[in-house]
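Notes from hallway chat w/ T.B., transcribed later so I don't forget. T.B. wanted the structure written out for a chain they're using in a teaching module, and asked if we could keep both sequence and structure tokens in one place. Agreed to drop them here.
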Amino acid sequence: MRINSDPQKENFNASMSSVPVSVEWGFGLIEKYWAFCDYHKNLKLWIQPVGVYYSVACILTNIHTCMNGGNQISDFFKILPPSAQEYFHSAPLPN
């Protein structure tokens, strides 16, 4: 603990210190299951729909998580993912 530090700030910082790690786990899952999303030399911005590729990879990763009962992130936060059916019915339709 730092000298003259605010205990409330210290508690907040301690609780938030694991959040960036869990976000990195999400990116890691996408790259693990869909390696093309991590192959920067192959992805060509303005020539390929890179954002669409990544969005689809995110959705497929979420479905994979639902169908397998969780992943490292859901285990860390001690939550169960929805069923695939619940996931499909809760997602907003694209414009």
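Follow-up for T.B.: The mean pLDDT is 86. Might be a good example for the class.
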